[in-house]
Amino acid sequence: MRRGGSITTRLITVLTLCAGIIIGLGMLLDYRLSRDELLGRLQRESDDTVRAAIIDMENWLDSIESATLLLARVLQQREYSQEGLQQMLRDVVEVNGAIFGATIALAQPPDAQGRSLGFAPYYYRHNGKLAYADLAVAENNYQQQKWYTDTVAAGKPLWVEPYFDETGGRVLMTTFAVPVYRTDATGTRFLYAVLTADVALTELHHYLQRLRLGGNGFGVLLSRNGIVLSSRNPANVMRHFSDAIIEDTNKATLQEMFAAALSGEVITRQHQCAHVPGRCVMRLGLLEPTGWPVGVIYSEDEMTAPLRAFELKIALTSLLTLLLLAISVAIVTRRLTRPLTALAQASDRIAQGDLDAPLPQAQGDDEVARLIQSFGAMKKDLKSYITDLEAATARRSRLQGELGAAREIQMAMLPHGGMANEQDETYGLWARVAPARSVGGDLYSYYRRDRFLFIAVGDVSDKGIPAAMFMARAISLIQQLAVTAADPAAAMNRLNDVLTSGNDNCMFVTLFMGLLNLDSLELRFSSAGHTAPSLARGHGVTSLAQESGPALGLAPDQVFPVNSVQLRAGDRLAMFTDGIDEAFNLQDEMFGIDRFNQALLASRALPITEAGDSLFDILGAFAGERPQSDDICLLLLDICPGAEADLHASERFALGPRLTKRVESWLLEELAQRQLPHKLLGDLKLLTEEIVSNVDKYACLPAGASIEISLQATAERIEIEVRDAGIAFDPLTGARRAELGATIEEADVGGLGLHLITALSDRQSYRREDGCNILRITKLLQRAPG
Amino acid sequence: MELTTTVTVDDMNSVVRVALAGALNTDTAPDFEKRLMAVLDGEQQLIVLDMKDLDYISSAGLRVIFKGAKQAKAGGRRMAAANRKPHIDKVFEILKALPDMAVFANEQELDEYLDAMQARTRGQ
């Protein structure tokens, strides 16, 4: 059994309790009925015992009285000689076994001399024989005896108070005395004799012995004066009952009972008895012939002992029955619930995942059997369900794994795996993509090419795998374009044409594509239906005004306008996808551009990385519990404080004599304020001369043509740009260079200038723009201190 | 900055000393080229370019020196550079110019070189 609350335990308890109560009630009813009957029987038995004993005694006393009275009648009517009287007396005693002794005491008044002692022969039993005594003796003459005087005084038959017979039998006795009257000739009635019959108290005691109730009960016989005639203790015989009793309370009770008994009442009282255990009861009545109170003292407990035995028997029987019942109930219940218990254990094991746990055998067609069958069916179903589920889960986790790998691949397509953070002396760039699902359609790209930074942020229509596939295609193309793109509009146009071909699904991508000139800080950008970037400048944030083309991938041969914005040092530009401004919260409110611009402003003072994190946090806090519904891409671009040139100078120089001298003079004049080291100035002079002379030599410019030289200086660097309208020629890649280190015979006399340009400047770039060759070199001030 | 060229001929030692002062750049190189060619027309065995006062040199200037050195070598003569300032030296260094051109760091080195040449001539 597992718990106290199990069905088995409850069944056993409840059934046993119910049966116990029923059995108990039955037993109690039976006991009540039987008890009354038993008590009645016991009462009757004790009454019968008492009555029989008393009747016996009364009969016995009656026989004594009858014999005595008969003899008295005879004596009253006939005259006998003294011998005759003696003989008759002797016969009476001899024949009548009940009589201990008898006398015929003639009433003979003393003669004149007072010598006559009277006549009173006395026969009595002694050692089984009749003995004779003459009571007419001088000492203790019978006529002074109490029995004689009392009888004479009473004038009628009476039982004399017990006494010790001194003269006769010398035993304790009581006497039935009958006065015999005769009538003389004159008709005068006179006392002729007193006839007595003695009863030994031992004989009375013998009768009284039969008045025993229980082991410790005993009979009591009192005289009319309250003298104890017979009792349990022989020492009390001949004493007044009040002397024989020690306890005062009993004395009072006994007095009362004694009085009541004398008046003929049968009285029953409880007592405190030293010799009788338990409740002591005394019943006292009157012995009819003698008028002696006779009683019986007994222990009620002893009398009701059979009842208690009966009670014990009943209790034991009940207990045994209950025990047997409990055992039977337990066995039956266990047998009934054993399959249930086994089923419960099996279900526990099943719940722990052991689907092969054996079920108990279903026997018969009862409810339990059906339950087990249902359980078996359930187990089977569960097993197949779990197998299916495992297969589904395996499929799902494989798909998850594939998606995870796809996500990694997709993120790897983005610069720095979707979390870019790059710092340059001119700019800081931070970007992050957070797809709504495992993979997404948002993209960003950037590529540094010489003094240009290519930036693209795009959003493929739809989400999930289709968007990711299209995004993969788009980003590959964008990254190819990034290497060569000189004009965002043209790049956008090419990208659109490529994406459009074979795009039957009509997937499209909105794209921001910009090219930042890191020297002039001019950002030229085109938009293919993409949200305009937000520009944080000073203490404000504005969305850039833009002229946008259509989204990419829908129709070929589109024109994408070029927008331009001049960035400044300290600017922060945010390019993002609509996953940000079209994010919703649980109240269906949209995040919106305004909120985004405010957040951008709020995080303005933070470093770019923290600002990016903060913007994502703000967006997350806004969306709250609502799951991200669209991919999110954010790219932040900071223009570093030192990036902007504080010196802008530009001059046109006509080709011709003393060109080097003129250029040098201008250069030194422009840089005069900057207190540059002499050596650096020498380098700059040399660089400028080499570039200019190169152009002069190779650009094939017509006479009178001019070149334009621009100078920009920041605290960190000096930039020199030379622009000429000559034939397209990139000196950095196309110019002939002298082989260095050759012997004099083999050494090339020309082509030395370019070596100097690359050796003395930190960066060189060439571009062809608007029909002009533009060569730009940068000299970093920190790296080449004077 | 202009270039001033002073040519001193020491026929006894067969040495011509060309002292350069100022800047040898694209502007001044053509004139210097003429002067140097004129010097090379002479008979001297050693042409020493004294760069003690040369402040600036560009590839155009170096080209002229290159050309001169080449011609001298073709004529079995030698050209040497002396007293180059650090930034002049740097340009030479960058262009790994004239690897077998004698280079004298200062006057003393040049004098020692001339003494050695003289001794050799006398010994012949």
Care to describe what's here?
- The complex is a heterodimer of chains A (about 775) and B (about 120).
- Chain A has about 775 residues and is α+β, with helices and mostly antiparallel strands.
- In chain A, the strands form five sheets. Chain A has a six-stranded antiparallel β-sheet, sandwiched between helices. Chain A has a six-stranded antiparallel β-sheet with strand order 12-13-23-22-18-19. In chain A, strands 14, 15, 16, 17, 20 and 21 form a six-stranded mixed β-sheet that branches.
- The longest helix of chain A is centred in the first third of the chain and has 71 residues, at about 5-75.
- Chain B is of the alpha/beta class.
- In chain B, strands 1-2-3-4-5 form a five-stranded mixed β-sheet, with helices on both faces.
- The interface between A and B is medium-sized, with 31 and 26 residues.
CATH fold naming of the largest domain in chain A: Phosphatase 2c, domain 1
Main pleated-sheet profile of chain B: 5 strands, mixed
* Total count of helical runs of at least 4 residues of chain B: 4
Give the overall shape of chain B, derived from the CA principal axes. Answer: globular
